[in-house]
Amino acid sequence: MYSTSTVTVSDILRNKGHGYLGMPPGASAYAALEAMADHDVGALLVLDEGKLVGVFSERDYARKVILKGRSSRSTTVGELMSAPPICASPELTLKDCMVLMNSNHIRHLPVMEQGTIVGVVSVGDVVGSIIRSQEATIHQLENYIAGDDYPSHVAAR
Predict the structure, then answer these.
(1) pLDDT of residue 132
(2) Residue 99 located in a structural domain
C-alpha cells in the first residue's frame, strides 16, 4: 500500500528528472521571469559562482516587485530571492517534504546531495506523486475486490 512515509524525494526526481533552472543574483527580475516563462517553471535557483544562494519564485516577484511598485527591469533577482534557501535531501520522505514546505510557506525545494544540487521538487510534484500513488492503490484494491488478481480455475483432483 501507498504511504507518504515511504516515498522519497529521490523517487520524485527519478520520475520528474534532475534538471533545474538557475540564474546569477545580478540578473534582472525581468530576465528571470522571461526564463521561467520559456521553461514553464514557477521558480529558479539563484546561483553565485555555482553556489546556491537563494530561490526566486513568482511569489517573490508578486510580493516584492508588483506590490511595492518596483520595476522588474531594474530590480535584481538577488534583491528579491528567498534566502537562505531551504533545501531537501534525496532521502527526505514525501511526508517530511510536505511538512517542510508547509511550515516554511514555500512551494519549491532545491534538492542537495553532498553539497551538489541534484534537482528541484515543487509542491505540484509532491501532490502529483501522491495522486499517482493513490490511483495505483485504488486500482490494486479494485482488482482485489473484483477477484482479478486470482486465477478463476479449480485444480483437478
Answers:
(1) 75
(2) yes
Per the domain annotation, does 120 fall within a domain?
A: yes
Closest of 131, 130, 123, 126 to residue 55, by C-alpha: 123
> Could you give the 3-state DSSP secondary structure of residue 78?
helix
Residue 142: domain span: 9-146
Could you give the angle at the alpha carbon of 55 between the alpha carbons of 84 and 117, nearest 5°?
Answer: 85
pLDDT at residue 90, as a whole number: 96
The CATH number of residue 48's host domain is 3.10.580.10
β-partners of residue 43 are 57
1 belongs to a structural domain: no
Measured between its terminal Cα atoms, the distance across the chain in Å is: 36
Beta bridge partners of 57: 43
Q: According to the model, what pLDDT value does residue 1 have? A: 45
What's the structural domain count of the chain?
1
List per-block mean pLDDT (blocks of 10 residues) for the chain, which spans 157 residues: 72 91 97 96 96 95 86 93 96 92 95 95 88 73 71 59
